[in-house]
Design goal:
Radius of gyration: 19 Å
Strand content: 15-25%
Strand order of the largest sheet: 3-2-1-11-10-9-8-7-6
Structural class: alpha+beta
CATH superfamily: DD-peptidase/beta-lactamase superfamily
Low-confidence stretches: 1-36
CATH topology: Beta-lactamase
Number of domains: 1
Length: about 375
């Protein structure tokens, strides 16, 4: 079994930025903006791709986004993927299909997928208090005994999003309401590592990333990333130095490519068996089942934000560690989706237009109050 760190040691090895989440306000229960247009189901792929090939660079230039990795999924397959711009504005090295981006909180749904696989194998019960799997309580608050994996994955633990160097606390009775929390994911990570006897980075690579064909992806820094990875940039386009985490963080340390993450979207559209890496249909549907309602059209499932729109149901997530921004949205029923990874602080400013011209439809996900454009 790997050496166990106490909570303060564990957090010392990461940083708020590396976790891929920030201290924004909790989600609003309403929304006011709407994306316009209908779904582009009947628009030829060639037409969509030709439009995006010119539109994405124009948006990047307008919004000061140095680099982008993009993938389009149609009919359950990768229809197109491409890199745009540069890894680093100082040396102008171009982004290509192998360029590695920090995905920030896109780490969360992939970790949730792995947790659901553990549940399929009987290694973890989603509704069993997590204290049943630990040698001692994570914190002294007795309400910790109420928290389950389901609460973590649906952001109803009562934990804050991020407590920094302060001791973590519980804001409200676990399971009673939504409060987006990276801290909850760190707690569940400790439980997973105790059950499996493996550091999370090794476990995710062996049982999730590699089996799904996500061979370029990792929750910890690889030596190859020294020359494959993009640098993050501030709002003025100034590059920042690499952060090279040696400890995996379930809430936000995944580095990946758009093509790799698109393979995960495709796995969400498919069905496996208990003895295969892919989740069974029942488990995927459980991930996409609303656990807590946020507004008439928004809810949260297990690991994913969920949209119920007039056109279809979509699952989505965003990532933000300040200098890297990312967004993904897909439909299991329509077998379509997109992955957008950017290396600029302005990255989320271009995602609505890209979704409008690649998928179309109305997407209340863009009204989620924690998205920092």
């Amino acid at each position: 079994m790997p050496k166990r760190l106490d909570r303060r040691q564990f957090l010392k090895h990461g940083s708020a930025a590396a976790l891929g989440f920030a201290t924004f306000s909790l989600v609003s229960l309403g929304y006011t903006r709407r994306a316009s247009g209908q779904l582009k189901l009947n628009v030829p792929s060639e037409t969509i791709i030709a439009d995006l090939e010119s539109r994405i660079p124009a948006l990047m230039s307008k919004m000061v986004v140095p680099g982008v990795s993009f993938a389009l999924v149609q009919n359950g397959k990768i229809a197109w993927s491409q890199g745009f711009g540069v890894k680093n504005t100082r040396n102008s090295q171009p982004v290509d299909s192998n360029t590695i981006f920090m995905s920030a909180s896109l780490s969360k749904p992939l970790f949730a997928y792995a947790v659901l696989k553990m549940a399929e194998r009987g290694e973890l019960d989603l509704d069993q208090p997590l204290t049943a799997y630990t040698a001692k309580p994570y914190i002294s608050d007795s309400r910790i005994k109420l928290i389950t994996a389901r609460m973590v994955l649906s952001h109803t633990t009562g934990f804050p999003n991020w407590s920094g160097n302060a001791p973590v606390w519980i804001n409200h009775t676990p399971g009673t309401r939504f409060g987006y929390s990276g801290e909850g994911y760190l707690y569940l990570q400790r439980v997973v590592e105790r059950i499996t006897g493996q550091p999370l980075g090794e476990y995710m690579s062996r049982y999730c990333l590699d089996p799904l064909g996500m061979n370029s992806s990792s929750y910890i820094w690889r030596e190859s990333y020294d020359y494959l990875a993009a640098n993050g940039h501030d709002r003025q386009g100034n590059p920042q130095a690499f952060r090279k985490p040696r400890e995996a963080l379930s809430a936000g340390s995944l580095r990946t490519t758009a093509t790799d993450f698109a393979k995960f979207l495709i796995a969400m559209m498919q069905s496996g068996t208990k003895d295969r890496p892919q989740l069974t249909s029942a488990s995927v549907e459980q991930m996409l089942q609303p656990q807590v309602k946020l507004s008439p059209s928004l809810s949260w499932g297990l690991g994913w934000g969920l949209e119920a729109t007039p056109d279809s149901d979509f699952f989505w997530h965003w990532g933000d560690n300040t200098r890297f921004k990312s967004f993904t949205l897909a439909s299991r029923n329509l077998k379509t989706g997109i992955v957008l990874l950017t290396n600029g602080q302005n990255g989320l400013k271009i995602c609505k237009e890209i979704v409008r011209h690649s998928i179309g439809g109305q997407h209340p996900a863009f009204d989620f109050s924690m998205i920092n454009y």
